[in-house]
Write a structure and sequence with these properties.
The chain has 170 residues and is mainly α. It is built from six helices and no strands. It has one domain. 75% of the residues lie in helices and 0% in strands. The two termini are 14 Å apart.
């Protein structure tokens, strides 16, 4: 767990500071997760960890393609799949649910504090209404210079990991 927290700490710092999570950081976490899994569960655990990694990629990569998630977020979730000893039974599912709940709370707080985040939400509501009523679907380009509205999933993912490590949930 210490290695995972260390790797996550670096990932959160890099994401917060530079809006990027280095591949070397993710690779270090994945390799350590696979080694830990192999040492604890032999080949069976390693196959399960690789399966979790593949499923997480297949689930979250389309969200990256749509622009809903960053590549670093997808890679962080894949890295968590490599740590099979921590994710036994429904651990990975619980981890993802807690992470997404924390991200939702973070998003709601940002909307309460920053007017530009509320503006985006109102635009989305008008867009959906227009699409439902008229059937017209326009393209919408997000202003990437407004970073206040971005929810970095590395922070909720890290908080979720700390809650799991503290035994708040399994």
């Amino acid at each position: 767990m210490g290695i995972l927290i260390g790797v996550f700490s670096v990932a959160v710092f890099m994401d917060w500071r530079f809006y990027r999570i280095p591949n070397a950081c993710i690779a270090a976490g994945m390799v350590n997760g696979m080694i830990l899994t192999y040492m604890s569960f032999s080949w069976t655990g390693l196959v399960c960890a690789l399966g979790a990694l593949a499923v997480l990629f297949l689930v979250f990569y389309p969200f990256y393609l749509m622009g809903a998630l960053g590549a670093g977020d997808v890679k962080l979730f894949m890295m968590m799949g490599c740590f099979h000893p921590l994710m036994q039974k429904d651990g990975l599912l619980h981890y993802m649910l807690v992470t997404m709940a924390l991200a939702a709370v973070s998003s709601a707080l940002k909307m309460a504090v920053y007017p530009e985040c509320r503006e985006r939400l109102f635009y989305l509501a008008r867009y959906i209404r227009k699409a439902v009523v008229t059937g017209a679907v326009d393209t919408y380009e997000v202003d990437r210079t407004q970073t206040r509205c971005v929810v970095r999933l590395s922070i909720p993912a890290f908080l979720s990991l700390l809650l799991m490590g503290a035994g708040i949930y399994h």
